[in-house]
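User: Can you model how magnesium ion sits in this protein?
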Amino acid sequence: MSNEGVGGEKSLNFLEEIINEDIARGQTRVHTRFPPEPNGYLHIGHAKSICLNFGLAKKYGGKCNLRFDDTNPTKEDVEYVDSIKEDVRWLGFEWAGEHYASDYFESLYMWAEELIAKGLAYVDDQSHEEIRQNRGTVTEPGTPSPWRDRSVEENLDLFRRMRAGEFPNGAKVLRARIDMAHPNMLFRDPVMYRILHTEHHRTGKKWCIYPMYDYAHGQSDSLERITHSICTLEFAVHRPLYDWFIEKLEIFTSHQYEFARLNLSYTIMSKRKLLQLVESKIVNGWDDPRMPTISAMRRKGYTPESIRNFAEKVGVAKRDNIIDLGLLEYCVREDLNKRAQRRMVVIDPIKVVITNYPAGRNEIIECINNPEDASAGVRKVPFSREIYISRDDFMEHPPKKYYRLTLGGEVRLRYAYIIHCEEVIKNLEGDIVELRCTYEQASKNGNSPDGHSVKGIIQWVSIEFCVESEMRLYDTLFTKESPEETEEGKTFLDNLNPNSLTIKKCYGEPSLKDTKVGQTLQFERVGYFCLDQDSRLGHLVFNRTVSLKDSWSKIVKQQK
Ligand code: ATP
Ligand code: MG
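Assistant: Here's the modeled complex, given as structure tokens:
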């Protein structure tokens, strides 16, 4: 997985090895590109590709372009272009050039005429279906189109008329004239252009013929003088065709290299399927925090550093595998531990009355914002006679090794006093509604004048001053590790997790009101939480970024 060698030193990934060899052979430039199709929002898989392409350029003092692969106007939109730019920048990268495949339509068109003139392309009148049927199979050669041997003049004339809009969608295509019996099916006269009378989000109505991926991609790389065109493994079979066009056109030679795409457990990454989740309102938009998109992860509280670090840890593989979602969560926990300020919240509260604390009095307790970062300072939290503690932090009949509050037992209130539970008050149903406790006045903030200490420390909030907030607790969107693996007749939607979102109320210390949208906090012993954009004055909404590791529940299970 990671390419960390023995002793922690980094060994090179295979792309770095290739680049080093290129440099040894005298190549002086490294120029990569990240080429998203603007037909959806970027996801964590794209983040992997972004970190790789921009990372290699940075490492070798080269450049990385952002290129929108916008050759399919029916599915593309400026909304996606804008979101992609925002996400790449947020991840911490700046592109050398911003390009659009659509900027190359004229060059691509001229090159297509050149291939026609060389007898290497022809206009085919067969329907999409006929072309498919006549391609043959892996074991049988294809059948040449009856239009394959049109003259150069006729092909040029027809291709120009295709461009001029004389033919309806699907009436004709331009195909490369290669080999209908080639063992690589992609070489059996691949389609280069199709007719699509559709407005393009950048070129408007200028074009009604659009180039196919295989024809557009390599030539775009070549125009930008990309040296290392990195893509995912499924394009390995396309590489000979990529090289073929460049060779026949005698243009700058870019080279394609393939690495394994990132797959993450419990996650789907196909944009088509993600769009389906958005359109069918299974999630609330592309940035619903349960989505694997960058915008969703940002909203959920992930940091760019945690994602970059994850991409680094995953490494660059040549074979497909599935990365454990736990690794991503580990990376964000590790990062937020250093940067998130701590706060106290109580989720399922029990009222605690401190009977020997004067009614009407309150005082300020100083709490450390981040024990990992002294510069984060302290904050003031009001303490009073009536407080909430979490229902989980009290047990009337505790198991062994339970160090929190019990009847007759003691616990420390975080940064405040040691309290002793004297009495449990229940309602008629037998539920605990209140705990009556006493406090030890001299035990404030770690002092223990009589020398005794207590093991358990629990969080608390003053009932008078606390702030009620909404917590959105997320679980994986799917219940299966590989959501796309389904039994017959089922789809990935059958693997949806009905409990991917749980909403709870929590009571937090008053400083929660000062949180900014997008700021992440650690709610002590609960998890990391990020203030959501849905928050309103008097109604704060927190997204759980990730839970803290919960070792306690394991101990409880072992005891049972
Ligand atoms: P989808 O099939 O979901 O639409 P895509 O691969 O077609 O995804 P593009 O917008 O074409 O999406 O991808 C832009 C770049 O990001 C490509 O170079 C692609 O290889 C890379 N990429 C996409 N998904 C992943 C992934 N899961 N892991 C690594 N790289 C990826
Ligand atoms: Mg694509």
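A couple of observations from the model: The chain has three domains: 3-259, 271-341+469-559, 345-459. Residues 271-341+469-559 form a domain with the Ribosomal Protein L25; Chain P fold (CATH 2.40.240.10).
User: Helpful, thanks.
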